[in-house]
Amino acid sequence: MHTLRKLLIFFILSGAPFYVNGQQPNPPGQVKGSEKAIREAYLFAHMTHQDYGRLYYSVSLDGLHWVSLNKGKRVFEEYQGHPDICKGHDGKYYLAGNTSDASPDINIWVSDNLLSWSKHAIYTPDLKSTPGYANALQRIGAPKLFYDASTSQYILTWHTPHLEGSKEDPERYWASQRTLYVLSKDLKTFSSHPAKLFTWDFATIDVMIRKVENSYYAIIKDETYPTLYWVTGKTIRIAKAPSLLGPYSEPSAPVSPNFREAPALIPSPDGKIWYLYYEQYPGVSYGLSVSDNLNGPWFQASGYTFFSDWDKYTLPEKVRHGCMITISRKEYEALVQKFGIDKE
């Protein structure tokens, strides 16, 4: 004990690092040995910092280490928006986007294989017809799709504000964002008018819906500005509901630090763990929270330290947000064959 005490004093006085032999464990959820992965591969459809609002692909075999395709060039020239892809009722993939937040239209494309896309539909929501939201501005932010197999319908969500920003208070524009939705059976015809998804009266954006077992989860960005009196501002939070349209519970405590947005959720290769990614904007880095249950608790994995022993996940440089989906190994190989993979 006396020797140990002297060693500790030596390290403190000399400034020598205590972490010489330390290393964080790898995130759970990976397959081991001959174990077969339940989730074989992953696609990240995203933008880049240099080319915001256009479509790029990156792929992964473990959900943690991502490499870009197509030599870091666009994979579909026609696309504009914040990429969001869902697999639909017919096994095809559907991609939503809009030319800009000020555009009145939401564009939807369809693909059999993720290799090429064709226009499926254009939907123009009548924002002023939203019940209890007649003061909605003509703004449509980040449309997202989810197909609910149990009710055989799609939900299309986006965020719309009701206050303009000002020089004195630019943040009030973002604080006025509310999440709206419509339903559809085929993504060609839609419910008669948009509606508010949540009963809470605070700002939400970037909402994605997922179903796990018998519960529905809304993964949201709390868009209120963080203060001592609203410490959850600009974080990723999760709400839960017994049915697709709610009612959704009050959102959870933050899953991310402040100033994070655009959540992307995937199951781990062994199917037992959830990986929840989110962007630290504006294009600074990505964070990753890990849990074995969407109800939490969550921990944040180590990344963007630029030390290989400490970075437990990696993404291509300057990627911006979009969506992550699971794909088959066959689909992964087809993507790599068509676009080519960037070797690092």
Automatic annotation (TrEMBL):
The record's InterPro entries line, in alphabetical order, gives:
GH43_arabinanases, Glyco_hydro_beta-prop_sf
What's in the keyword line of the UniProt record? Hydrolase, Signal
Question: What Gene Ontology molecular-function terms does this entry list?
Answer: hydrolase activity
Q: Which domain of life is it from?
A: Bacteria
Signal peptide region: 1-22
What is the protein's given name? Glycoside hydrolase family 43 protein
